[in-house]
Recover the amino acids of this structure.
């Protein structure tokens, strides 16, 4: 590859990528020096255009995990830092803002948090960024020249706040100029329409670094710009935060009178930021949060930048025979604690109308009905009837909505509760009888009751004769009960065929005829013995 050739050609781009992969593989395996891949990347960025450097840096970002390994990072971190810094110097701060941000973010992730190379421990300020403004008013423009000079003179103090804090004369000049600017901002507040005209929401999509023009002709427009006012006021808060930050010695801090002026000016600046549309209160809260984080950064640098990354504790195996300590739960066990935590995280879950979906009885017992089908081949251990929780819920469910099915539990068990429409024909016959069989059962019981009545009457009529041996009545009188018995037996014969059917009815008729004949013979023998 020749110096200055473009990498737009896919063939050249693939060859360079393969070369970098090979060198990285050799460095990772220890076949070549670990810093060779970093040196190759530095040479490649130096000989490439800005457009091609974006592709090279994309490769660096994709291999960040491999380049950050300890065996490679120790030998190439300084080369990588030099490569990124040289690339940042070549980029335009106005046109290549996104690319600059990518490089800075890469350095923040590539180097550890405790790295001292980017800490600016000495606190050096960028004094090369000078703000030049007009000393005389332009022709044909009506502008307050004194206010114009006062406003732009603040940038001299913002660029080097340490010099202003050390010199009392400069501090007094800065304080007087700032009072004039704050009074002007308070006298000319911005309305909501001014915030809408600038379309700040649309400007967020376009990332660029703002460098406001200092022409006196633009003074009136810049004062109506909310973004311009926010930049000036945020610079004031950063300046005050630097002055109030603790120094290495007590002499470097502000005096008592300076503290009072700083507090009063800071309060006025925050009120102005809160009044600037749009979303002034939210913007002020974000700035305060950033400045609060900055204080922690300052304290860490003052302590000498100690390493605060701690290695994880090694798990030591517990000695043999020692019982592990049971975990303590807030509500007694793990399930209740998780349920309570879930309820706190989802407060609207209990009021959700779709939270409880009550199934019908048919839908609930459908799994058990499928298991009862022999053609399904469900093994006994996987049968739903062995699931106690499922059966218990189903019984409570049937007791509320299907009392007829619930009543069959005592006779047939849990399988009898299943609705009949879910069961196959052969299974349904075991638990549900036909209507004709149900009708026969009460008739059979009634027939048994009527067949026992004639027997009881016959025994009652025969007892007076057997006890005494000889009756004390005439034959004519003794014949009366026999006639009544015959009439009762005749009635029993008439009713028995209608009420009793089958072999039982025939047996009852034979027994009744036999008893009747025996009683007639006994009544005939009785009077003959008596006369003899």
């Amino acid at each position: 590859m020749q110096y200055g050739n473009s990498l737009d050609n896919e063939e050249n781009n693939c060859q360079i990528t393969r070369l970098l992969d090979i060198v990285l593989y050799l460095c990772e395996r220890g076949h070549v020096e670990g810093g060779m891949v970093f040196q190759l990347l530095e040479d490649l960025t130096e000989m490439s255009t800005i457009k091609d450097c974006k592709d090279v840096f994309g490769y660096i970002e994709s291999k960040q995990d491999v380049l950050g390994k300890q065996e490679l990072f120790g030998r190439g971190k300084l080369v990588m830092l030099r490569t990124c810094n040289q690339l940042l110097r070549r980029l335009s701060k106005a046109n290549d803002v996104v690319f600059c941000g990518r490089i800075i973010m890469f350095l923040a992730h590539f180097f550890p948090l405790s790295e001292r190379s980017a800490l600016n421990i000495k606190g050096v300020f960028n004094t090369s960024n000078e703000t030049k403004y007009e000393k005389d008013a332009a022709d044909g423009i009506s502008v307050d020249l004194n206010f114009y000079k006062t406003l732009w003179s603040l940038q001299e103090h913002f660029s080097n706040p340490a010099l202003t804090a050390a010199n009392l004369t400069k501090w007094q000049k800065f304080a007087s100029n700032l009072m004039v600017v704050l009074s002007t901002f308070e006298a000319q507040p911005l309305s909501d329409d001014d915030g809408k005209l600038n379309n700040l929401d649309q400007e967020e999509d376009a990332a660029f670094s703002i460098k406001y023009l200092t022409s006196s002709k633009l003074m009136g427009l810049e004062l109506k710009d909310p973004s311009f006012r926010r930049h000036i006021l945020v610079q004031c808060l950063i300046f005050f935060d630097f002055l109030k930050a603790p120094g290495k010695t007590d002499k470097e801090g502000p005096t008592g009178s300076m503290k009072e002026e700083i507090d009063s000016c800071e309060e006025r600046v925050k009120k102005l930021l809160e009044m600037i549309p749009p979303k002034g209160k939210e913007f002020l809260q974000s700035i305060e949060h950033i400045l609060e984080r900055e204080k922690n950064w300052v304290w860490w640098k003052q302590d000498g930048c100690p390493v605060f990354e701690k290695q994880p504790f090694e798990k030591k195996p517990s000695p043999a025979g020692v019982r592990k300590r049971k975990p303590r739960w807030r509500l007694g066990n793990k399930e209740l604690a998780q349920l309570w935590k879930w309820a706190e995280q989802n407060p609207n879950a209990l009021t959700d109308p779709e939270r409880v979906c009550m199934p019908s009885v048919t839908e609930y017992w459908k799994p058990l009905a499928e298991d009862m089908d022999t053609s399904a081949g469900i093994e006994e251990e996987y049968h739903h009837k062995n699931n106690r929780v499922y059966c218990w819920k189903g019984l409570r469910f049937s007791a509320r909505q299907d009392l007829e099915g619930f009543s069959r539990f005592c006779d047939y068990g849990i399988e009898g509760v299943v609705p009949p429409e879910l069961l196959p024909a052969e299974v349904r016959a075991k638990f549900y009888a036909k209507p004709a069989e149900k009708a026969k059962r009460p008739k059979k019981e009634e027939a048994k009751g009527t067949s026992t009545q004639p027997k009881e009457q016959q025994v009652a009529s025969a007892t007076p004769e057997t006890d005494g041996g000889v009756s004390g009545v005439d034959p004519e009188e003794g014949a009366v009960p026999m006639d009544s018995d015959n009439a009762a037996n005749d009635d029993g014969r008439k009713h028995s065929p209608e009420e009793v059917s089958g072999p039982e009815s025939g047996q009852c008729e034979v027994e009744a005829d036999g008893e009747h004949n025996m009683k007639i013979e006994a009544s005939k023998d009785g009077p003959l013995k008596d006369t003899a």
Residues 300 and 306 are 7 Å apart (CA to CA). Residues 10-110 form one domain. DSSP finds 24 helices and no strands in the chain.
